[in-house]
Structure formats: structure tokens, C-alpha cells
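Annex B. Sample input.
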Amino acid sequence: MNREVQNKWFVMKLIAMSKQISKEKLRNMVFMIQKEGRNQDKTTFNYSFVKWNVEAYSKELEQDLRQLDLEGIINHSGEISLTSKGSRLLASKKKMIEESGIHYFMGFYVYTYEDLSLYELVNYLYKKYEMGRFQNNQEIMEVVHHNELSNELDALLNGRGLLNKNKK
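Annex B, continued. Sample output.
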């Protein structure tokens, strides 16, 4: 599965797991889950982030949210939520997402941090990841190209004949 598609499925899962989540809080949760996932060699999001003011920003994540909204998969008026179409699509990929293991990993971070205000979350991430050492618009986390990702999901998909190694 290419990373762009995987990112969208994982974003949809994060939205579904959250009680209520703003775009800004979602962005910070994706950053934290991706950062911690890489630290623990887990299959997770794969976005490029730059520092913007005091927090992480991903243009690609913003584009994914816009596309999911335009396709009627998420409702983006205030708090972000899945539409009924989005819920049906996510349910159709339940097994794939569960087998990736991300729902357990993501669930821990959602449960632990979703009740923090946006201010508290940004402040926590700023300190934890030493965001002050980066300049505005400086890359703080880059995309890991497919051949460098954790082999967990690839092994699973390859074992089922669902991964074409010739694709990115």
C-alpha cells in the first residue's frame, strides 16, 4: 500500500477514535503518534512536518484533510468527524488496520492525550520534542521512503499477495 493511501486510512482511524478533535489538535496528534511510532519502529503515519510558530505543520496532511472533506468522508465544520460514508469506508478496512497494529498504538495516545486542550498539547509537544531548536519552516520530520519503513505491514501485505514490490 502506498504511503499516501495508508496515511488517509490512518487519519480516518484517528478521527474515529477521538471523542472530538479540531484540525489543529489532529495535526499535533498525528505528529506525536508518528514521532513516537518511529521511535518504537511501529507502522504509523508518514508525513513530512515543518516547524510553524510553536508547533508542527504538515502541508500534505492539510491536503489529505481537504481531499477527505471534498469526497464527503469527513465533516470538517468545527470539530472533525467521519461522515456515514467515511464510517462505512473505514469499517471495510477494519481488518487491514487492525493487522497493522496501529489501532492499539494510536489508541494509547488518543486515550492519554485527547482530553488535553490544544494549548496544553502544543506546550507538551514543544517541550518534549525541543521545538524551540528549530527555525520556522525548518523540516523537523521527513517522509520515510517506503523501503525504509517498518517491515510489519509490508510482510503482512506481501504474504497475502497484496503488495507489489515494484510500486513505491
